[in-house]
Write a structure and sequence with these properties.
This protein is 42% helix and 20% strand. By secondary structure, it is of the alpha/beta class. It has a six-stranded mixed sheet with strand order 2-1-3-5-6-4, with helices on both faces. Strand 8, helix 7 and strand 9 form a beta-alpha-beta unit. Helix 1 packs antiparallel against helix 11 and helix 5 crosses helix 10. It is globular, with a radius of gyration of 19 Å.
């Protein structure tokens, strides 16, 4: 494992990504002479850039929006979480094989468990985009069987309902503007950080109580987190999800899968957490 290797994170935009700091911290602890760069890649340019990466012998890629669907389509092997969500945020380049993983699901699960959520029956998701599917799978792994999805267009929830049916979850779509919501122990917000949500909607969601995990980390605080704080309920940014999904990526790049721990993993996680806090 002492050989040099190159990895990159791709997305559009990409300047905000914290992945280079997180991964660099991990590989320092592991004593690996690996480099981890960032590259702005569009959906249209993905195939050409992937061919370049394979020719250059890159070991792996982290994919952010809007490339998770392209990663899914390119992969020649998929882990179960990627198969369920149709999203790949981690590609391990092994010769002719492109092994695709979704570590966002595990990142949400591990962050919620770190916050004291080990088991739940009901939950809520705000937003119906690509990240909402990862949130649904994560909530199912924590035991959820009833999930309300608040979205601007309830019709957009149909694919999430279909996934819920496969997972044995009752998914109920509701308009984001609903004046009141039933109480749940956890709400996972998957809206973009710059999304504008009416004050009445944020207040109605916050009044339902429970823990808020907002996957946003670059635009913090969000309108939802501020509403949660006004209501006296706890709110978490997406930093925990980011940290833990990155650790699972490190496992993939070092060991080849998400289940095998890396050497000195507690030290690795502590260094990554420090890098995240330090900016």
């Amino acid at each position: 494992m002492g050989e040099r290797a190159a990895l990159e994170v791709w997305g559009d935009p990409i300047a905000h990504s914290r992945s280079p700091q997180l991964h660099a911290a991990a590989y320092r602890v592991l004593g690996l002479p690996w480099t981890y760069g960032r590259r702005q890649v569009t959906e249209q340019g993905f195939a050409a850039e992937l061919a370049r990466a394979r020719d250059a012998g890159l070991r792996g890629l982290s994919l952010t929006m809007p490339l998770k669907g392209a990663g899914f389509a390119a992969a020649t092997w998929l882990d179960p979480r990627a198969q369920l969500t149709g999203a790949v945020n981690t590609l391990r380049l092994d010769g002719d094989a492109l092994r695709g993983f979704n570590t966002d699901v595990g990142g949400i699960v591990r962050a919620l468990r770190e916050a004291g959520i080990d088991d739940l029956d009901r939950a809520r998701i705000v937003g119906a985009g690509a990240t909402a599917t990862s949130a649904l799978v994560a909530l199912e792994e924590l035991g959820a069987r009833h999930v309300e999805v608040a979205a601007r267009r309830p019709a957009a929830v149909a694919p999430i309902q279909q996934l819920g049916a496969r997972l044995g979850i009752d998914v109920v779509p509701v308009p984001l503007e609903t004046p009141s919501h039933a109480g749940v122990p956890v709400t996972v917000a998957t809206l973009p950080g710059d999304a504008r949500v009416a004050a009445a909607s944020t207040e109605a969601l916050a009044q339902a109580g429970g823990l808020l995990m907002d996957v946003v980390y670059g635009h913090w605080p969000t309108a939802l987190s501020e509403a949660w704080e006004r209501a006296g309920h706890p709110a978490l940014s997406g930093q925990g999800m980011l940290l833990h999904q990155a650790l699972l990526q490190v496992r993939v790049f070092v060991t080849g899968d998400t289940a095998t721990m890396v050497p000195r993993e507690p030290d690795v996680l502590a260094a990554m957490r420090l890098a995240l806090v330090g900016g």
